[in-house]
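Please check this protein record:
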Amino acid sequence: MGLFSAARQGRKDDADLGNGVWRRAHDRFRRGLDRYHQILEGVEDDDVYNELVAVANQLGELLPRVRAVCARAQAQWPSEGLDIPGAVISVHRALSRAGNTLATTAEAAAMTRLDGERWGVASAGLDNVRRRAELVVEDVLEAERELPG
Protein backbone atom coordinates (compact mmCIF):
# COMPACT_ATOMS: atom_id res chain seq x y z
CA MET A 1 0.00 0.00 0.00
CA GLY A 2 1.46 3.31 -1.06
CA LEU A 3 1.65 6.47 1.00
CA PHE A 4 -1.37 8.14 -0.58
CA SER A 5 -3.55 5.03 -0.58
CA ALA A 6 -2.69 4.45 3.09
CA ALA A 7 -3.72 8.03 3.90
CA ARG A 8 -6.97 7.59 1.95
CA GLN A 9 -7.70 4.33 3.77
CA GLY A 10 -7.00 6.02 7.10
CA ARG A 11 -9.52 8.76 6.32
CA LYS A 12 -12.08 6.16 5.21
CA ASP A 13 -11.49 4.20 8.43
CA ASP A 14 -11.96 7.40 10.45
CA ALA A 15 -15.26 8.08 8.68
CA ASP A 16 -16.58 4.50 8.87
CA LEU A 17 -15.18 3.33 12.20
CA GLY A 18 -14.48 6.49 14.20
CA ASN A 19 -11.57 6.60 16.62
CA GLY A 20 -13.10 4.83 19.58
CA VAL A 21 -13.89 1.29 20.62
CA TRP A 22 -15.19 0.15 17.22
CA ARG A 23 -12.02 1.26 15.45
CA ARG A 24 -9.89 -0.44 18.08
CA ALA A 25 -11.86 -3.70 17.79
CA HIS A 26 -11.49 -3.68 13.99
CA ASP A 27 -7.80 -2.78 14.07
CA ARG A 28 -7.04 -5.46 16.66
CA PHE A 29 -8.65 -8.08 14.44
CA ARG A 30 -6.75 -6.83 11.39
CA ARG A 31 -3.42 -6.89 13.29
CA GLY A 32 -4.10 -10.48 14.39
CA LEU A 33 -4.78 -11.44 10.80
CA ASP A 34 -1.59 -9.70 9.66
CA ARG A 35 0.38 -11.56 12.34
CA TYR A 36 -1.07 -14.90 11.23
CA HIS A 37 -0.03 -14.19 7.63
CA GLN A 38 3.49 -13.23 8.77
CA ILE A 39 3.86 -16.64 10.37
CA LEU A 40 3.06 -18.32 7.05
CA GLU A 41 6.20 -16.79 5.53
CA GLY A 42 8.46 -19.05 7.57
CA VAL A 43 6.71 -22.39 7.03
CA GLU A 44 8.92 -24.81 5.11
CA ASP A 45 6.78 -27.96 5.16
CA ASP A 46 4.39 -27.84 2.18
CA ASP A 47 1.64 -29.86 3.87
CA VAL A 48 1.71 -27.70 7.00
CA TYR A 49 1.83 -24.56 4.87
CA ASN A 50 -1.20 -25.63 2.82
CA GLU A 51 -3.20 -26.40 5.96
CA LEU A 52 -2.28 -23.08 7.56
CA VAL A 53 -3.14 -21.19 4.36
CA ALA A 54 -6.59 -22.79 4.31
CA VAL A 55 -7.15 -21.46 7.84
CA ALA A 56 -5.73 -18.07 6.82
CA ASN A 57 -8.26 -17.89 3.99
CA GLN A 58 -11.11 -18.74 6.37
CA LEU A 59 -9.97 -16.06 8.81
CA GLY A 60 -9.36 -13.51 6.05
CA GLU A 61 -12.97 -13.85 4.91
CA LEU A 62 -14.04 -12.61 8.35
CA LEU A 63 -12.34 -9.20 8.11
CA PRO A 64 -15.05 -7.56 5.93
CA ARG A 65 -17.67 -8.94 8.30
CA VAL A 66 -15.87 -7.54 11.33
CA ARG A 67 -15.57 -4.20 9.54
CA ALA A 68 -19.29 -4.24 8.71
CA VAL A 69 -20.24 -4.90 12.34
CA CYS A 70 -17.90 -2.16 13.57
CA ALA A 71 -19.12 0.33 10.94
CA ARG A 72 -22.79 -0.36 11.78
CA ALA A 73 -22.08 -0.07 15.48
CA GLN A 74 -20.21 3.22 14.92
CA ALA A 75 -23.11 4.58 12.85
CA GLN A 76 -25.68 3.69 15.52
CA TRP A 77 -23.58 4.12 18.69
CA PRO A 78 -20.69 6.45 17.82
CA SER A 79 -17.55 6.09 19.89
CA GLU A 80 -14.58 8.41 19.95
CA GLY A 81 -13.18 7.26 23.27
CA LEU A 82 -12.87 4.18 25.43
CA ASP A 83 -16.44 4.05 26.69
CA ILE A 84 -18.43 1.10 25.33
CA PRO A 85 -22.08 1.97 24.69
CA GLY A 86 -24.12 -0.13 27.14
CA ALA A 87 -26.69 -1.23 24.56
CA VAL A 88 -24.03 -3.07 22.56
CA ILE A 89 -21.54 -4.22 25.17
CA SER A 90 -22.14 -7.84 24.09
CA VAL A 91 -21.15 -6.92 20.51
CA HIS A 92 -17.93 -5.34 21.69
CA ARG A 93 -17.22 -8.28 23.98
CA ALA A 94 -17.62 -10.75 21.08
CA LEU A 95 -15.39 -8.63 18.82
CA SER A 96 -12.74 -8.38 21.54
CA ARG A 97 -12.83 -12.13 22.05
CA ALA A 98 -12.51 -12.64 18.28
CA GLY A 99 -9.41 -10.42 18.19
CA ASN A 100 -7.85 -12.14 21.20
CA THR A 101 -8.61 -15.60 19.87
CA LEU A 102 -7.19 -14.66 16.49
CA ALA A 103 -3.96 -13.66 18.25
CA THR A 104 -3.81 -17.03 20.00
CA THR A 105 -4.54 -18.72 16.67
CA ALA A 106 -1.46 -17.00 15.25
CA GLU A 107 0.53 -18.19 18.27
CA ALA A 108 -0.70 -21.74 17.71
CA ALA A 109 0.32 -21.50 14.05
CA ALA A 110 3.79 -20.34 15.08
CA MET A 111 4.12 -23.24 17.53
CA THR A 112 2.91 -25.67 14.85
CA ARG A 113 5.57 -24.37 12.49
CA LEU A 114 8.26 -24.77 15.15
CA ASP A 115 7.07 -28.26 16.11
CA GLY A 116 7.11 -29.29 12.45
CA GLU A 117 10.63 -27.96 11.98
CA ARG A 118 11.97 -29.33 15.24
CA TRP A 119 10.20 -32.67 15.64
CA GLY A 120 8.64 -33.32 12.26
CA VAL A 121 5.22 -33.57 13.92
CA ALA A 122 2.70 -30.84 13.25
CA SER A 123 -0.65 -32.64 13.12
CA ALA A 124 -1.63 -31.98 16.76
CA GLY A 125 -0.67 -28.36 16.30
CA LEU A 126 -2.78 -28.09 13.15
CA ASP A 127 -5.78 -29.42 15.05
CA ASN A 128 -5.20 -26.74 17.67
CA VAL A 129 -4.98 -24.03 14.99
CA ARG A 130 -8.22 -25.22 13.37
CA ARG A 131 -10.00 -25.38 16.73
CA ARG A 132 -8.95 -21.84 17.61
CA ALA A 133 -9.94 -20.56 14.16
CA GLU A 134 -13.41 -22.03 14.68
CA LEU A 135 -13.67 -20.07 17.92
CA VAL A 136 -12.83 -16.89 16.01
CA VAL A 137 -15.62 -17.67 13.54
CA GLU A 138 -18.05 -18.28 16.41
CA ASP A 139 -17.11 -14.96 18.05
CA VAL A 140 -17.69 -13.02 14.82
CA LEU A 141 -21.04 -14.76 14.32
CA GLU A 142 -21.99 -13.82 17.87
CA ALA A 143 -21.07 -10.16 17.27
CA GLU A 144 -23.26 -10.17 14.16
CA ARG A 145 -26.17 -11.76 16.04
CA GLU A 146 -25.89 -9.40 19.00
CA LEU A 147 -25.88 -6.22 16.89
CA PRO A 148 -29.38 -4.74 17.16
CA GLY A 149 -31.23 -3.62 14.06
Notes: The helical segments are 3-17, 21-40, 46-60, 63-76, 89-119, 123-146. The chain has a mean pLDDT of 89.
